Amino acid sequence: MYRQGDVLIVPVDEEAVPVTAAERSGVPRDARGRMVLALGEVTGHAHAVVGPGRLVREAGPYGPLLLHLPDGGRVVHEEHAAIPLPRGWYRWSGNASTSRAPCGSSPTELRGPGGEERRGSDDGDGDEHSNE
Question: What does the H/E/C string look like for the chain?
Fold first, then answer.
């Protein structure tokens, strides 16, 4: 599990990905070629993924938000270090393409897909991030 600010990214087994999602084209990228997960209305800073892949929104108002990274990728943000993501499918949630709500100020324990512990921290600006 990975978290940067109010964006949470969770690995998904490929067998659990709906066939319709695997075949669907992705959400368009922004002008900089990024897959934007959340965009701050005030700052314009984005939690985004760079690398080959696509964002997929399944049908329905509450359909899963899926991210496919066939070669891996990185979650980037203008104020934080990048978080590497191994290749695979992910489900993500948060304030996608809307303003960011403040996060808590305490450290967050995270686990990678292999179960290894990762530490996230909050440096006071409202965005928690991995320390990798």
Answer: CEEECCEEEEEECHHHCCHHHHHCCCCCCCCCCCEEEEECCCCCCEEEEECCCEEEECCCCCCCEEEEECCCEEEEECCEEEEEECCEEEEEECCCCCCCCCCCCCCEEEECCCCCEEEEEECCCCCEEECC
Rounded distance, CA 15 to CA 127, Å?
Answer: 32
Residue 76 lies in a domain: yes
Q: Using CA atoms, how far apart are residues 43 and 51, in angstroms rounded to an integer? A: 23
The overall average pLDDT reported for the chain is: 74
Does residue 83 lie in a domain region? Answer: yes
Model pTM greater than 0.85? no
Domain that holds residue 95: 2-101
